[in-house]
Amino acid sequence: MPNDFGVMKYRDGSSYNGQWEVGKRHGNGIMHYKNGDIYEGEWVNDKRHGYGIFNILDRGVYEGEWEFDKMSGQGILSHVVNGQRMQFRGTWQNGEQVEGKSENMELIRDLKV
User: Strand 38-44 to strand 24-32: parallel, antiparallel, or no bridges (unpaired)?
Assistant: First the structure.
């Protein structure tokens, strides 16, 4: 795909609907992964980069900043355990929590994206 807006359906069943630049996901778009996960947000050079919301099937939702395909910057990771909403709000670096607050940090730490 050149510089444009369009849909790409991948052989593995994943699909991307959004902006393209020089044949790469670039700008705003929605990626539906084959396992059911969904990312909606900004892309740069085929990587999640900028602000986005990642619905992680059966594990929760991350809403916040991304850098080179990893959670980096300010964000919120939330999910439900035994009917109780658990949430970590803070700073992420290279996909890991580096500071912030959580209702129950041990449960949140079990989630790795």
Answer: antiparallel
